[in-house]
Amino acid sequence: MKEPITLGDVLSARKTIAGHVIHTPLRPSASLSEQIGSPVWLKCEHQQYTGSFKLRGAANAVLKLSPEQKEKGVVGVSTGNYGRALANAARNAGVRAVICMSELVPKNKVEGIRAQGAEICISGTSQDEAQKEVDRLVSEKGMTMLPPFDHADIIAGQGTLGLEILEQLPETDTLLVPLSGGGLLAGVALAAKSINPAIRVVGISMERGCAMITSLQEGKPTAVKELPTLADSLGGGIGQNNQYTFDMCADLTDDFVLVNETQIADGIRAAYHDDQQVIEGAAAVGIAALRAGLIDNPGTTVVLSTGCNIDMDLHKRIVGGEDVDLMAE
């Protein structure tokens, strides 16, 4: 039986990754605060090393490997940001890394991973298909698989974001957290609710293929078709043998919200024009939900802005007002 993840694990992770990650700023958003009539703050994790929150979990997991595991190397599956983070953490620790991903991962994210020194493997058209190559490398080469979300050290590392937020703004009423496989949501909710049980945690994802929300609705891990979306970092399944995040998201999340492609684009534009921030679609879902009026009575709100790894040509089109639909391209 697996050991539950605790606040103590998150506190330990913070010590482990100290010096390997940035303590990212929490900045007020005047435009969002005015729109909803309550204070809104942006947790600018898109300013993290490698351009996303994923480095917290990856660094924690790599640094906790045994010498034997480090010698044989690590392998993981990624929709982009986790691959970049794992590659960075492995390179800094002197460990070989192989990152497997599907054909749907944007080229800019593939090249970003390659630039961090990892070996690249493109396999299939879904995260689950890429996982098969990961399993082969584990079986044949003895490499250690570090999954992007469903791993105790990964979740504990992501939970350090929750600690930072409540240290920076103890009066937070609501956290808006992007939701994919649930590692971020599980870790942040665990840390935040351990400190303040009354805090409200809302998981937000895209309408086009949110595996976690579909799985929770079905009562079990459920495969969904991956579709092109502006929030590409939120794509992928949660794993049929999910060990942690399915249960933790069910137990620790107060509400779930879905946003459409038009709303995601609006969030990207608002971050740029109103708050002077360049963020990717997955990072914009919280802003999108607020601007669309999908969060009732939020109170003092922190929006987790989780990544900036967007193709800049695509970003230019969106902030320029183009109605971008990746399904039609």
Automatic annotation (TrEMBL):
Keywords: Lyase, Pyridoxal phosphate. GO terms for molecular function: L-serine ammonia-lyase activity; pyridoxal phosphate binding; threonine deaminase activity. InterPro entries: Ectoine_EutB (IPR014333), Ser/Thr_Dehydratase (IPR050147), Ser/Thr_deHydtase_PyrdxlP-BS (IPR000634), TrpB-like_PALP (IPR001926), TrpB-like_PALP_sf (IPR036052). The keyword Lyase applies. Its cofactor is pyridoxal 5'-phosphate. One of its GO terms (biological process) is L-threonine catabolic process. Its EC number is 4.3.1.19. Residues 19-307 form the Tryptophan synthase beta chain-like PALP domain. It holds the Pfam family PALP. The keyword Lyase applies. Belongs to the serine/threonine dehydratase family. This is Threonine dehydratase. It comes from Thalassospira xianhensis MCCC 1A02616. The lineage of its organism: Bacteria, Pseudomonadati, Pseudomonadota, Alphaproteobacteria, Rhodospirillales.
